[in-house]
User: Fold this.
Amino acid sequence: MLTSIQGKTVIVTGGSKGIGKGIASVFAKQGAKVMIAARGESSAKEAIEEIKTAGGTAEYYLCDVSNWEQVQALVDHTENTFGPVDILCANAGTFPQKKIVDLSPEAWDDIMSTNLKSTFLCVKACIPQFEKLGKGRVVVTSSITGPITGYPGWAHYGATKAGQLGFMKTAAMELARYNTTINAVMPGNIVTEGLASLGEDYLNSMAAAIPLKRLGAVEDIANAALFFASDEAAYITGQQMVIDGGQTLPECVEAVDEI
Ligand code: NAP
Assistant:
């Protein structure tokens, strides 16, 4: 199943850590040629070494996804290294926690750039690639936070994650002329470097609120991204998939205790 990933050129933004690293390694296991984009060199290097040791093909390119020139350079570099880009996984993102009362206008703009503007820039930069190939795939990493749930300190973050879905709906229509689909994964709480930094109390309280009684693994998200990127998902576009262990289902806190 999903043999269509074999030999494809894939960009994974934020592929050096967490969910992106999981996506990069699952795609590489399926035979894709993976370009990891991130700002920090040491984790990017480590991520591609792990993939190569496991027999996969991967390189990295240092890039700030909120910068248009750097994103264009990433796409050019990927094409020169592996051939035209078949699949874009627009995954890079940050989730600094700050309540509205303490949130500065500058911090608002920063997260809009990193999480939302970057999605637009990466998609825009890949359109000529998809046009050249006559097909393409985009998988966006959104979240449950924003489109479905709220959490104090993440108004700005939630706005970016809901914004990505708003962008996706019209992008799906515009990309159709290039035979390209765009879909979004919406993770619940997934164990990553970024999430771990929120502390053990946060992780424990989240796990207790999830019907499947565990936080997600990066592979849980990567497998959904793999499906959206496959030929088998050719007729699905502009859609979103929640992958949260049932976290958004309970009507009240007590409902989880009834399980
Ligand atoms: P993470 O472990 O902190 O990893 C974030 C990745 O993004 C790193 O590779 C980081 O590398 C890269 N990155 C951050 N800012 C960047 C920028 N300006 N330019 C290029 N790369 C950048 O985070 P994660 O938990 O895997 O989250 C990944 C995505 O999943 C995010 O979009 C997040 O909103 C979403 N998500 C996560 C969870 C969760 O529970 N973990 C839940 C829902 C949604 P550098 O810092 O080196 O650039």
